[in-house]
């Protein structure tokens, strides 16, 4: 038994709560569907790295889901020879069907065991995804571990494609990863300043994988994405999976930012003093009151400090945005 037309996305949407596992061989390796949308592929040849590609952790972020599904179709059809181990995760099938970011709670806040502190339908999914990633990386023996968690942003952005690098806690950054981001046509990299409970941070901190959350444009419904805008990342992923090589371009082509503060919605009357169509990475004057609520306010400290991921449509206690500052590559 295998997936009809090798179409993981169609199969996942048709069977979002499918509970049986499926194993089959194809010209190029062995495939194992462990949960809806979670496909583990072992190549026929000796693998040279272990790669996790996830998309649709937020159900309405469809462009990366279409990109990853196309790669899976090529692999299962024997058109793209795999030389790495591969775990594909289409993150949130129910939210994909409903065209929403999440159903009960934001799945991308539930990793690193944070699911134990939440309730909602995403809790089981986070638990299963952590277990699948653990099984996959526990069986890694050769080369390096990679996890790229692909998203699209709610808003427009000064930099259409950008990556969020996990907090390293003083460990050195990998220049090869930055060069790979540049080859993927990523225009900006954001360095996190503290641990998180996101999927990419989980793989970085728990499994020692090179990892990033990668934003690939703006949220659009299935079928409305212009995948030609993702051709550089498509080609770089093909080179990684097929040649086991990290594509590279000069990092100085990308802007570098560091997160300096996390805005947290601290009460129901919390508001951001920005227009609803303000783009990610828009900078402000020093002294501008960016956020306020009955409990306090947040003032911009330095001219040019900018906001990324502003959002107040979330429960009290959750992240309402990141304040970021330009950093020079020479500071590395
Ligand atoms: O556009 C937005 O406001 C959110 C887009 C998105 O889903 N971003 C990720 C970033 C995760 C990270 O910080 O690594 C998220 O919010 O989960
Ligand atoms: Zn997302």
From TrEMBL:
Its cofactor is Zn(2+). The active site is at residue 215. Pathway: Amino-acid degradation; L-arginine degradation via AST pathway; L-glutamate and succinate from L-arginine: step 5/5. It comes from the Bacteria. Keywords: Arginine metabolism, Hydrolase, Metal-binding, Zinc. GO terms for molecular function: succinylglutamate desuccinylase activity. Residues 253-325 form the AstE/AspA barrel-sandwich hybrid domain. SUPFAM superfamilies: Zn-dependent exopeptidases. It holds the Pfam family AstE_AspA_hybrid. Residues 49-240 form the Succinylglutamate desuccinylase/Aspartoacylase catalytic domain. It catalyses: N-succinyl-L-glutamate + H2O = L-glutamate + succinate. Binds 1 zinc ion per subunit. Zn(2+) binds at residues 58, 61, 151. InterPro entries: AspA/AstE_fam (IPR050178), AstE_AspA_cat (IPR055438), Aste_AspA_hybrid_dom (IPR007036), SuccinylGlu_desuccinylase (IPR016681). Its EC number is 3.5.1.96. PANTHER family: ASPARTOACYLASE (PTHR15162), SUCCINYLGLUTAMATE DESUCCINYLASE (PTHR15162:SF7). NCBIfam families: arg_catab_astE, PRK05324.1. Belongs to the AspA/AstE family. Succinylglutamate desuccinylase subfamily. Transforms N(2)-succinylglutamate into succinate and glutamate. This is Succinylglutamate desuccinylase.
């Amino acid at each position: 038994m295998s997936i009809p037309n090798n179409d993981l996305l169609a199969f996942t949407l048709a069977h979002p709560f499918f509970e049986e596992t499926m194993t089959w061989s194809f010209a190029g390796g062995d495939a194992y569907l462990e949960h809806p949308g979670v496909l583990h592929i072992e190549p026929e040849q000796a693998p040279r790295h272990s790669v996790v590609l996830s998309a649709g952790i937020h159900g309405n972020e469809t462009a990366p889901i279409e990109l990853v599904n196309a790669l899976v179709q090529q692999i299962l059809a024997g058109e793209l020879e795999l030389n790495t181990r591969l775990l594909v995760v289409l993150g949130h099938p129910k939210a994909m069907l409903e065209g929403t970011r999440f159903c009960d709670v934001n799945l991308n806040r539930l990793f690193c065991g944070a699911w134990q502190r939440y309730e909602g339908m995403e809790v089981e999914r986070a638990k299963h995804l952590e277990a699948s990633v653990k099984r996959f990386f526990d069986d890694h023996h050769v080369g390096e571990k990679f996890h790229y968690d692909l998203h699209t942003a709610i808003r427009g952005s000064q930099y259409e494609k950008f990556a969020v690098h996990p907090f390293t806690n003083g460990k050195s950054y990998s220049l090869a990863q930055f060069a790979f981001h540049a080859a993927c046509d990523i225009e900006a990299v954001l360095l996190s300043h503290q641990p998180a409970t996101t999927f990419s941070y989980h793989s970085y901190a728990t499994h020692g994988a090179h990892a990033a959350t990668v934003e690939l444009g703006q949220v659009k419904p299935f079928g409305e994405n212009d995948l030609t805008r993702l051709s550089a990342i498509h080609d770089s992923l093909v080179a990684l999976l097929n040649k086991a090589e990290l594509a590279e371009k000069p990092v100085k082509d990308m802007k570098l930012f560091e997160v300096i503060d996390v805005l947290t919605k601290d009460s129901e009357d919390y508001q951001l003093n920005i227009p609803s169509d303000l783009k990610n990475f828009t900078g402000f004057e020093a002294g501008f009151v960016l956020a306020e609520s009955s409990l306090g306010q947040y003032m911009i400290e330095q001219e040019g400090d900018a906001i990324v991921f502003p959002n107040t449509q979330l429960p009290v206690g959750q992240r309402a945005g990141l304040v970021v500052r330009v950093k020079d590559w020479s500071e590395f």
